[in-house]
Design a protein that fits this description.
583 residues, 23 helices, 3-stranded antiparallel β-sheet, 3 domains
């Protein structure tokens, strides 16, 4: 009987090792898959909207919990096969040898996941698997204590998880406050936008050859205007401001967090520290960090600075810019950054704005659409074809091709081709190569003068905005059109035009209506198959003011955002909404 019991224990011991080895192998395969980029990063532009930011944070929490849960079975299995400690260590709530074994295996799996590139950020990331192992080891230790302990295992585990969730909820609630920080965000005017655009363009790293450098100097006011401008593209309840000192800076930021019927609370951040370039690498030193009513203890600030520095250097979106920086000085009145050429890696635009719709299939369809439009231009014998004829031709081809393909994808390809040939050739840079040199020149000569309501500039506004709306976001498309008009309002420009704004918004609305879903895409094809009526897609615009210089834009319309300005933009939206194609 004794020998039979021992053989049973040995058999269970071997089975336990097989289970542990098999599960570890499964985790290693998962880690190897993740290290090859199976999980894509969230595009930066997706975080410009507070709702999307909250969604991203929720996804991050879910991913963290999933990672933690994956390592709980590892700790449990390690505990069941490793003998318990003797003496006083036997009374501990965890099996120490089992925890050490699980920790070693978790570290091995995590090392494979990060590709062996250890850093402060990676060290922090390892804490999640180790905490999962710790919980699993506690469960395994409790399980081995016998029947009574097993009965109470589930209630105890539920209590521990509930307390952890409660603690996280309390910390989250303490990080949110009823009011935003009391500072005023910088006022963003068209004149300031033009000035900053010209300043940054004059120091563009794209104009540099190898070995050359530019030095860009920004005052605190410049930085605050840029922050206010960028944040204004998302939710309105957001603001940020910086203050500079010698070799130091501080940041204050408030982000509104909508809580449904309870209104909004505010995520308020106050951050202070120093920054500099040491041995050609960025170094950050955090002196203070306050999130809501939570003040981080000083002993955490040093590791926090190292972790943020490591994260910036590892992030492929930041690394090209950090590699180009050769010097940086911070003074109370300005920050000056010296940099050389910036070499952007492949896929950089996708990292910022998300993957474009330019799959290989859509690129092939876009090339087919371009050939169709070139044939149309060739048949016009020197005179440009009509705007409606171009759209009828493109969407007739999309309708014919979508018999075996997605109507949404074919409509996207039609809009991309129209954006390149009737709008601007630089649309191709964001999409992918679809034109050869000969076709490009022919297209520009034949289609450059296509008009809508006798205006070729409206054609370009409409088609470029439609393409941008598909490549990125409707907010990007609208913001790009608005910036173009604000630049035109300056000296030497053609003046601010509400007519052009209408053309931009009409193009964006058309693109979204034609690609919303399969039913909407086919409905747009059917509508255009019956003929193009300009009033259905492009409302009257000739009575809207245009050619407005900046002084008049400020005095008569209150600038961008003034009450008269808002009345006119509301009228533009009303006219577009009344178009039959968008109802």
């Amino acid at each position: 009987m004794w020998h039979r019991s021992e053989r049973t224990k040995d058999r269970l011991w071997y089975v336990g090792w097989v289970i542990l080895a098999g599960y570890t192998l499964l985790l290693l395969c998962r880690a190897l898959y993740q290290s090859r980029g199976a999980a894509a990063d969230t595009p930066v532009w997706e975080l410009q909207d507070s709702q999307r930011l909250i969604g991203w944070m929720g996804g991050l929490v879910r991913a963290t919990l999933g990672e933690w849960a994956c390592f709980v079975p590892l700790g449990f299995a390690a505990t069941l096969i490793v003998p318990r400690s003797t003496g006083w260590r036997r009374r501990l709530p965890i099996n120490v040898p089992g925890l050490l074994l699980a920790g070693v295996l978790a570290t091995l799996v995590f090392t494979v996941k990060i590709g062996g590139s250890w850093s402060p950020v990676a060290a922090v990331g390892l804490m999640i698997p180790l905490l999962g192992c710790l919980f699993g080891v506690w469960m395994g230790t409790t399980w081995r204590r016998g029947g009574r302990a097993r009965v109470w295992l589930v209630p105890k585990a539920a209590l521990l998880l509930g307390l952890a969730a409660l603690g996280a909820g309390v910390l989250l609630w303490l990080s949110l406050e009823n009011k935003p920080l009391s500072f005023e965000a910088a006022r963003v005017t068209s004149e300031e936008k033009r000035r900053l655009v010209h300043l940054i363009r004059s120091k563009s790293p794209r104009s540099l050859e190898e070995g050359q450098t530019h030095t860009l100097q920004l005052t605190p006011y410049d930085i605050n205007v840029l922050l206010a401008w960028g944040l204004s593209l998302g939710s309105p309840e957001r603001k940020a401001a910086v203050q500079l000192a010698r070799e130091a800076a501080s940041l204050s930021a408030s982000v509104g967090v909508p809580l449904g019927r309870r209104g909004s609370r505010y995520l308020n951040l106050t951050l202070a520290g120093a920054a500099g370039i040491e041995k050609e690498s960025l170094r950050l030193h955090v002196n203070r960090c306050r999130l809501g009513s939570l003040e981080l203890p000083r002993w955490l600030l040093g590791p926090l600075g190292s972790m943020v520095t490591s994260f910036l250097h590892e992030d492929r979106r930041c690394q090209p810019f950090l590699d180009a920086i050769t010097g940086m000085t911070i003074e109370p009145n300005a920050i000056a950054v010296t940099y050389g050429p910036v070499h952007l890696p492949p896929g950089f635009r996708e990292d910022l704005f998300g993957p474009t719709a330019a799959s290989p299939e859509i690129l092939a369809s876009t090339r087919a659409q371009i050939r169709g439009l070139l044939d149309l231009a060739g048949r016009s014998r020197g005179s440009p074809p009509g705007f409606g004829t171009c759209f009828e031709t493109a969407f007739a081809l999309a309708r014919a091709r979508c018999v075996e393909r997605s109507a949404v994808s074919e409509n996207q390809a039609a809009i991309f081709a129209l954006g390149i040939l009737l709008g601007h050739p630089r649309v191709e840079e964001f999409l992918g190569s679809v034109l050869d040199n000969h076709g490009f020149e022919t297209a520009r000569q034949a289609l450059y003068r296509v008009r809508i309501r006798d205006r070729s500039d409206w054609t370009k506004h409409f088609c470029v905005s439609a393409a941008i709306a598909l490549l990125s976001d409707a907010v990007v498309s609208d913001a790009a059109g608005l910036l173009k008009e604000e630049l035109d309002a300056g000296a030497g420009g053609s003046g601010f035009s509400f007519c052009d704004l209408l053309a931009d918004r009409a193009g964006t609305t058309f693109a979204l209506a034609a690609t919303r879903d399969e039913a909407a895409a086919r409905a747009m094809q059917d509508r255009l198959a019956r003929g193009f009526r300009v009033d259905d897609f492009f409302p009257p615009a000739a009575d809207l003011p245009e050619g407005i210089p900046d002084a008049e834009l400020q005095s008569r319309y209150g600038g961008v955002g003034g009450e008269p300005y808002r009345r006119l933009t509301a009228e533009i939206e009303r006219r577009i909404a009344a178009c039959a194609a968008y109802r």
